[in-house]
Structures are given as C-alpha cells and as structure tokens.
User: What shape does this take?
Amino acid sequence: MDIHEYQSKDLFAKYGIPCQFGRSAATSEEIISATEDFPQGEVVVKAQIHAGGRGKGTFIDGYKGGVKVTSSKAEARTIAQKMLGNTLVTNQTGPAGRKVQTIYFAQATNIQKEYYLAILLDRATSMPVIIASTEGGMDIEKVAEESPEKIIRLYIDPLLGLQAYQARLIAYSLGFEGEQVKQMIKLLMNVYRLYDEKDCSQVEINPLITTPEGNIMALDAKINFDDNALFRQPDIRALRDLNEEDPKEIEASRHGLNYIALDGNIACLVNGAGLAMATMDIIKYFGGSPANFLDVGGSANEEQVTNAFKIILSDPNVEGILVNIFGGIMKCDIIANGIIAAAKNVALRVPLVVRLEGTNVALGKKLLQESGLPLVAADSLTEAAQKIVELAA
Ligand code: GDP
Ligand code: MG
Assistant: This one.
C-alpha cells in the first residue's frame, strides 16, 4: 500500500525525522484555511498523488510542474487552485495521469545540497538495505546507470537492526562532518525504526537536504507498506486512499480475488499466482498482451468466478478472455459451472477460450460443451494461448 507525501511526513514527525512545517488541503476552503497557518515567506505547493516525478510533471491542461515554490501565501493559493482537481502526468503515472485531490503546502526552505536516502527490502538477501547517494533530487535509477560508484548500499541484519557504526559509516560516506554526522546518525536510526515498526517495504527520501544553516531535513517522503502486514497496522490501514487505486482492483479485493490491471487486451482468469504468471508469459510469447493478472485462488466459488468475469469485462480494453484452470482442490466442474453462470449473468462481448485440466476435467468439459456457450475449448496451454491471441486480434 502507498500513502501520500503529507501522510508520510506526519509519520516522519512522529518518528523525529526532521521535515518542513506543512499543511494539507482537499477543498478550496481548506486551501484558504491551510495557508492561513503559515508564517510569511515562501510556500511550496505540492500536488499529492501516489507517484513521483511531480516536480517535472505536466498537468493535462498544459500547466507545468506539480511542485512549485511560491513567494507568498496569495500566490500559493492561486497555484493550489490550479492544481486541485487537475490531472498530473509524470514519468511514473503513465499517460493518463492522476487526478490531484489533495494539495500539500510546505514552508519553503533554502537548499544547500540534495542527497538520496532510502531503506527498502532486498529480496535477494532477505535483508533491509539502505541506499544512499550524494546525487539527490534526481532519478536514482539514472544515477545507478550512469554513475553506480555514487551509490552506497548497506545491508541490515533484520534481527540486529541498524547498528550505530553502520549509520556512522553512511554519514561519513556521504561526506558529512562534525555536527552533521550526529544529525545524520539520529535521522538514519529514526528512519530505520519507522521502516521496521510500521512494516514498510520502502521509505524513500529524495531529496534529503542540507540547509545553509547546516540542518539535515527530508524535503520529500515516499513510503510503501507490506500489504501482508496491514492486518496489524490499523493506523496505517486508515491512511489508504481509494481515490488512488484502480476501481477494478478495489472491487476485486472485495471479492477475495487477486487482480492487477495491465494495459493489454487479453484478459486472463487463472487459479494460482504461478499459473497466472505462466499464462501471461505464454500470451506474450504468442504475440498477445495481457489485460490483467487475475488469480481466483485455489477455492473460488461460482459467485467469485462471476464477479471475476464482471470485473474483466468492465475493462474497455479487453478483446478476448482466456480461462486457464488447473483443477486440484478446485474441481473443473465447479469452474465450468461458474463460467456458465457468469456468461448468463454478464453479456459476453468478446471471444472466450477455456482450457481446463486436472480433477473432474471430463465432467467440466462436458458441462461447457452442453451449455451451448460460444466458447472455444483448448486442451493445452499452448493451444489456448494461440487461439485467444488469434481471436482477439
Ligand atoms: P517530486 O518531483 O515528486 O520528487 O517532488 P519533490 O518533493 O522531491 O520536489 C521536487 C523538487 O522541488 C525538489 O527536488 C527540489 O529541488 C524542489 N523543492 C521542493 N521543495 C522545495 C523547497 O522548499 N525549497 C526549494 N528551494 N526547492 C524545493
Ligand atoms: Mg522527490
């Protein structure tokens, strides 16, 4: 789960990670009241969407920049009104962009130098890793590509946690001296404590800055959480913003379906995540492009299959459906009945290829055949993928 910058900064404040004074606003009235709290001086106006690259983004009406440093409250209000309700396109949003429904105002600060800092889970070593660089404020992927020697990586033993000597090592590697080393160690320890206690999968600060007065502070904040741990993080769960999520994905999660929307045209309905991945791969192999990842799980019932079809068909990009089920605990006849019920319930406007294998496969196939549904049966995964790619084209 992702949260907004302003929510991340609330968490930073709770964990003693220094950041600017700030206020959020979701309506025109709140834009006025939020800015009233600011002392005189420069205010940064920041569009809140679950995507980075806002500063270099462009709104669909041509207005440039989702992060603006303004010289007065009045100017900040005018710019905030332009951003609110507008759609921001950044290199992370895709061409459709994201509608801005919240604005964050931050007390502007002068920047001496920008750094990069993140803690995330490294799956290869099963350890949290700190990534730090003196090249902050820009795309870290680009830094990694062009000057990999400027990226510091430090692995943390999850049982021991971040050790003071490790934090010191990072502070020195980034070139900090004297008082700033102490500030940096404290900040690193606090970021790690937040990462650990709140079950984060990533805490990213880009840029982390030094001010001309010599203070270190987080100018931006991006936190992602491990969905599997949300059950024990009620305060984090409360930060979920459904506006930022695909309505089809929200609907799927209500029915216990694992669904992820993709931008192709062939929908897949599969049981088991591994089989879903293999199905998407083979669709690609035969020149098609998957419209989604959909795993109905090992024990889906007729109602879930119906809902899965409804969600798939609500995507206007879908031009074909491939059902690929391996009957194990889940029997093929149950799935066949689910497909038949679903097809009666929802208008099947695109070709459907079904491949069943496993427990009760003969009965499942018979049911489908006798149903009179306009579907194409396939015996192997290869045949199924070839047929659906052909029919959807
Ligand atoms: P992002 O573009 O989505 O990563 O948003 P950021 O919060 O990182 O802001 C983008 C850029 O705006 C930063 O890298 C800074 O260069 C600039 N910026 C943001 N806040 C301030 C500020 O308070 N003062 C100044 N001078 N620049 C700022
Ligand atoms: Mg940033």
Notes: Residues 132 and 254 are 39 Å apart (CA to CA).
